[in-house]
């Protein structure tokens, strides 16, 4: 256990030294590459204004999203009404989509528990 701790400390020291050497250079490159997204002057007041703009822009987009949701739901209802005309390919795609959703749910549960499988005795 002590050897693992020493290894971890050694890795952390190496990472810290790497960041110390190259962190400033990386920051400069990152800012230069993305300077079109920086608002001048970069003040706290400007940041607060932008965060409010983001919040209210997102709130303003809710009605459009609401309408799009109901259009999608109407499309699904239409497909369900005409399920006798449904092709095997479409049913397969829907089944794979459902399986993927279920798999993400299961993976999310496992990750949420800290990558432990409860209920199994190994």
TrEMBL record:
Pfam families: ATP-synt_G
Compartment list: Mitochondrion membrane
Keywords: ATP synthesis, CF(0), Hydrogen ion transport, Ion transport, Membrane, Mitochondrion, Transport
The UniProt record lists the keyword Repressor: no
Protein name: Uncharacterized protein LOC120251127
Transit peptide as UniProt keyword: no
GO biological process, one term: proton motive force-driven ATP synthesis
Entry GO terms, CC: mitochondrial membrane; proton-transporting ATP synthase complex
Family: Belongs to the ATPase g subunit family.
InterPro entries to which the protein is assigned, alphabetical: ATP_synth_F0_gsu_mt
Organism field: Dioscorea cayennensis subsp. rotundata (White Guinea yam)
GO molecular function term, any single one: proton transmembrane transporter activity
Superkingdom assignment: Eukaryota
């Amino acid at each position: 256990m002590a050897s693992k701790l020493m290894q971890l400390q050694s890795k952390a020291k190496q990472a810290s030294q790497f960041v110390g050497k190259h962190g400033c250079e990386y920051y400069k490159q990152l800012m230069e590459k993305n300077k079109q997204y920086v608002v001048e002057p970069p003040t706290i007041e400007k940041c607060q204004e932008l965060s409010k703009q983001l919040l209210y822009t997102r709130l303003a987009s809710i009605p459009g999203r609401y309408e799009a949701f109901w259009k999608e739901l109407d499309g699904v209802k239409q497909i369900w009404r005409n399920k006798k005309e449904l092709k095997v390919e479409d049913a397969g795609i829907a089944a794979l989509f459902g399986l993927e959703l279920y798999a993400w749910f299961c993976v999310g549960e496992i990750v949420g528990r800290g990558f432990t499988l409860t209920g199994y005795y190994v």
